[in-house]
Design brief:
Blueprint (H helix, E strand, L loop, with lengths): L2 H30 L16 H13 L3
């Protein structure tokens, strides 16, 4: 077997292994169903500095 032929077969096995791994993940996701909702991942603690910067003028202009 020539050296270049061996290199192509190594590349082919690596591509095949990557494709098989991707297929396995896809099948596992299909079996498990959609990901469950985790509200803690979307939790916001309140207005951030950009909101305060934008609305601070509104608060001071009211003369409260």
């Amino acid at each position: 077997m020539s050296r270049s032929h061996m290199h192509h077969s190594v590349v082919s096995w690596s591509a095949l292994r990557a494709a098989a791994g991707a297929l396995a993940k896809l099948i596992q996701a299909a079996i498990e169903g959609p990901e469950k909702y985790h509200p803690e991942r979307h939790y916001m603690r309140g207005p951030g500095p950009k909101w305060r910067e934008k609305h601070m003028f509104d608060i001071t202009s009211r003369g409260a």
